[in-house]
Amino acid sequence: xxxxxxxxxxxxxxxxxxxxxxxxxxxxxxxxxxxxxxxxxxxxxxxxxxxxxxxxxxxxxxxxxxxxxxxxxxxxxxxxxxxxxxxxxxxxxxxxxxxxxxxxxxxxxxxxxxxxxxxxxxxxxxxxxxxxxxxxxxxxxxxxxxxxxxxxxxxxxxxxxxxxxxxxxxxxxxxxxxxxxxxxxxxxxxxxxxxxxxxxxxxxxxxxxxxxxxxxxxxxxxxxxxxxxxxxxxxxxxxxxxxxxxxxxxxxxxxxxxxxxxxxxxxxxxxxxxxxxxxxxxxxxxxxxxxxxxxxxxxxxxxxxxxxxxxxxxxxxxxxxxxxxxxxxxxxxxxxxxxxxxxxxxxxxxxxxxxxxxxxxxxxxxxxxxxxxxxxxxxxxxxxxxxxxxxxxxxxxxxxxxxxxxxxxxxxxxxxxxxxxxxxxxxxxxxxxxxxxxxxxxxxxxxxxxxxxxxxxxxxxxxxxxxxxxxxxxxxxxxxxxxxxxxxxxxxxxxxxxxxxxxx
Length: 504
Ligand code: NAD
What we know:
By secondary structure, the protein is an alpha/beta fold. It contains 15 helices and 20 strands. It has helices at about 50-65, 70, 75-90, 95-105, 110-130, 165-180, 195-205, 220-230, 240-255, 275-290, 310-320, 340-355, 390-395, 410-420, 435-445; strands at about 15, 20, 25, 30-35, 40-50, 145-155, 155-160, 185, 215, 235-240, 260, 270, 300-305, 360-365, 380-385, 400-410, 425-430, 450, 470, 485-490. The strands form 5 sheets. Strands 14-15-16-13-12-17-18 form a 7-stranded mixed beta sheet, with helices on both faces. A 6-stranded mixed beta sheet has the order 9-8-7-10-11-19, with helices on both faces. Strand 7 (about 155-160), helix 6 (about 165-180) and strand 8 (about 185) form a beta-alpha-beta unit. Helix 1 (about 50-65) packs parallel to helix 8 (about 220-230) and helix 4 (about 95-105) packs antiparallel against helix 7. The mean pLDDT is about 95. The site of nicotinamide-adenine-dinucleotide has 31 residues, from helix 8 and helix 9.
């Protein structure tokens, strides 16, 4: 979808160019498009409108860098140290990067500062892993051979990111890709390109050789599609919607490329009557209204045991009603705007859908008409009760501050409703019964189950989805395998030459 407005000729807005082969690159199209500030509801910068020609230049630069000695002859230890210097560079620029994120995606400065301050850990963790990537010696069943494996980088990796947490979701791919020795072309969301361009500049200032990481900005159809299709790209790491993910997966599979897909969710946050309800209320509100619900792991379905349904709803409504909305740059703000104009409309449309389906509005239910929200794209925190799990509001991802409350009777019922979804990204379980906590974590179909906590992530903890929520895992030690190929080497140490027509 082409989402932002074209830039006018006389514009004086700040411009963000692409970054290819260690240099800023103007778009070959000569065109720029405006990127908007969701709080002000108006443009604040212009971004280069990349084309297939720019993609070609970037992939070529990455391909050259892959074989160039400045990168390829670095020892694994030196590569790890370099990633640590990159981490230092990010740590020194937290305010700059977080400020750009807020300008583009409207999420709270506190949230973006938290995310950006945490980013260096990905580069330190995978930097540390870089010289622990080892092959194995195979204790072969056949005498006379020394047989071992080498773990080799795939080559050029394409990384395509969404707008909700641009740098964090990028780091989840970029750090292990670089630790593996790959080179990269990034295509950030057209709605939030600025911070990625700046990040790559910071990485190069920290010593990353030119061409190892490149950025081509622009639209999905004009930049993303040719990048996925480029014959020199060996792997695609994607985070975004399941619709785009399916398309990318099919295209990559057609060219026998590797791919990892981190997609959407409709995660259940399940509260049992035996839970610490104070903690559960907090966890439910955090799960859906933090980041204005624009989180793949948003706990957008509250499954609550019927005996505490009314109490939970009252308490969640009370806490959510008091949430302060307004300028995401202000320390006191708790709920910011929706990141993009189309997403704002989509959230409002889903509120209408839920009403039409017969759900009851317990809170909110429309645009936020508050002076502190100005002309921004704000939606009131919205809670629907009387939701049946078969309704669209319970099955489809809204990606906004809209909670669907569904009662259940017992554990069996909770599992049935939780798993009755084509998604399977995250799930929360609130209970003080240890046995139930383990049973639920085993039975729920999701990539992550949080017990008495919600929306926690770490560079060490594998993350990803089952069912339509994705393919592959990011974070943790094994994520580096997504960027490595295994080569097996056989050396004859004395086995006799044998019949050429019979397999050895
Ligand atoms: P999107 O799928 O619209 O876009 C994601 C990226 O894909 C953008 O950079 C876009 O330009 C690009 N793109 C679009 N069409 C393309 C094509 N044909 N070929 C290649 N690239 C193309 O998603 P979005 O609206 O930016 O992000 C919101 C979605 O992302 C939600 O569904 C959310 O759940 C999901 N998400 C998932 C995770 C996760 O880790 N599982 C995290 C955050 C967001």
